Amino acid sequence: MQIIETISAMRGWSEAERRQNRLIAFVPTMGFLHEGHLCLVRAARKRGDRVVVSIFVNPTQFSPGEDFAGYPRNFARDHELLANENVDVLFHPAVEEIYPAGGQTHVDVEKLSLPLCGASRPGHFRGVATVVTKLFNIVLPHVAIFGEKDFQQLQIIRQLVRDLSMGVEIVGHPIVREPDGLAMSSRNSYLAPEERLAALCLSQSLCKAERLFRRGETYAPAIVRLVLSEIAKQPLAAVEYVKICDAQTLDELEEINRLAVLALAVRIGRARLIDNKTLRQ
Ligand code: PAF
Fold first, then answer.
1. Which of 134, 150, 151, 161 to mutate to test the pocket of ligand 1 (most atoms within 8 A of CB)?
2. pTM of the predicted model over 0.90
3. Which segments in the chain show pLDDT lower than 70?
């Protein structure tokens, strides 16, 4: 596995692969890899002749007061995990390489960035959309794989690829969960043992909500109420939002009469956890 740290070397490698008609599949990450990331890498392997993974903790998607400096990092371990998955290139640029001084241009996916996580993390999705655009311009992938845990992020990236006419196919990968249901996330490492246990209220309340929906409940506020009352039983958990939205536009729904997503964000200790379930009739 090659490690590439500069934009010019990365682009040069990808251009050479493209000249050989090889399909490049790309998995952007912020490192501190877990099994969920490795599932994305394996999905990339199935879709591409070459697999590129980036590790870049993107400062612009952290709001002031968020966990940028303390975000978990372990490059040596990530390197070993990716080498074992036969990744072709690990792209690992420095912050100054991606954001040289004097930058003025940002990518804003305006409407989709407003609700859900966007409401409490101003600027977050602008940072994500900007860095993903940059990474696509550098890595030149044919296809890129993103986890569905960050459901809003995935919809925003689909929209930006459409809006900016980028020739990259976006593939969503189902949420990868621990055996007890907790959605895998690098931020799970923040959880103390009792918080880790409390964090099960996210996936468990989503499952209860899905059962209610399967039994015929289509009135969104009733399902949201159930989720809120389940999470309220857990004293260590503080709900940020629980919402049911149109899965594409992310407009909030009252009646679930089309493909919808039940999405939530909950704070447990210093971890802000998100999870979601697609509701399909
Ligand atoms: O999902 C993530 O890890 C990040 O938001 C991404 C897509 C790598 C952009 O920094």
1. 150
2. yes
3. none
